[in-house]
Amino acid sequence: MAGFDALLTGYHRFRTDDWPRHRARWAELRDGQSPKIMVIACSDSRVDPAQIFDTSPGEMFVVRNVANLVPPFELDGSRHGVSAALEFAVTQLEVSEILVLGHGSCGGVKAALTRSFEGRAPGAGGFIAHWVDMLDAARDRIVAQYGTGALALHEMELETVRVSLRNLRTFPGIPDREAAGTLRLRGAYFAIADGVLHIMDDAGAFCPA
Where are the alpha helices (DSSP H) in the chain? Predict the structure, then answer.
């Protein structure tokens, strides 16, 4: 597995190969960015949106967190990293699409399903527990139907996308932009086991791309 020394080796490959190949593109980006799409993905090291979508520098504005979750709009005085990134993407970059990307074998979703961090203090699992409790309502419904096995975990992984999309629509300006046709919300799911991307349709079902 890659440690910091391996990362430096990768950086030198980047400087030797990728940087010269994209030199003109980097020059264009020197004074700013204008991505058309925001991607909200999981922090999981196996699910890199730039790799999955084979993009060039500057094409995506990416936010990654545990279980690719978007919290609902809140004005509670706390610091909201996802909300700030969303506000920047929508009001400053004026992206025309937001994609929520879920994935298979998600540890954050498993924590939500098993409630393995419940009751822990902040810094000892409590931050995780409070973050994934956004999925509590979905979790109760899914457990009642599927139990807590592999099928329930898969259903929970899909539900993270639907929950985040619903929460996105609680933010001021997003429903209006959707109605005006200047912003489109999308959902997708990447299956690590076979490398297949599944796209969510308007009914909330996922089909291979």
Answer: 4-13, 19-21, 23-29, 49-52, 81-87, 107-114, 126-132, 136-146, 150-168, 174-180
Q: Are 89 and 95 in contact (CB under 8 A)?
A: yes
Which residue is it, tokens 């960015």?
33
Among 166, 163, 142, CA closest to 154: 142
Per-residue model confidence (pLDDT) at position 2: 76
Q: How many CA atoms lie within 13 A of 75 on its CB side?
A: 3
Element of type H or E holding 175:
helix 174-180
What gap in Å lies between CA 90 and CA 73, rounded to an integer? 14
pTM above 0.70, yes or no: yes
Residue 209, number of CB atoms within 10 A of its CB: 9
Task: Tell me the β-bridge partners of 198.
Answer: 189, 208
Rounded to whole angstroms, what are the CA distances from 22 to 27, 28, 52, 155?
9, 10, 19, 40
Alpha carbon distance 28, 5 (integer Å) = 30
What Cα–Cα distance (Å) separates residue 135 from each residue in 40, 97, 196? Answer: 16, 24, 24
Write the pLDDT tens digit of every residue in 177-192. 999 999 999 999 999 9
Task: List the helix and strand counts (H, then E) for the chain.
Answer: 10, 6
The owner of tokens 């940087």 is 19
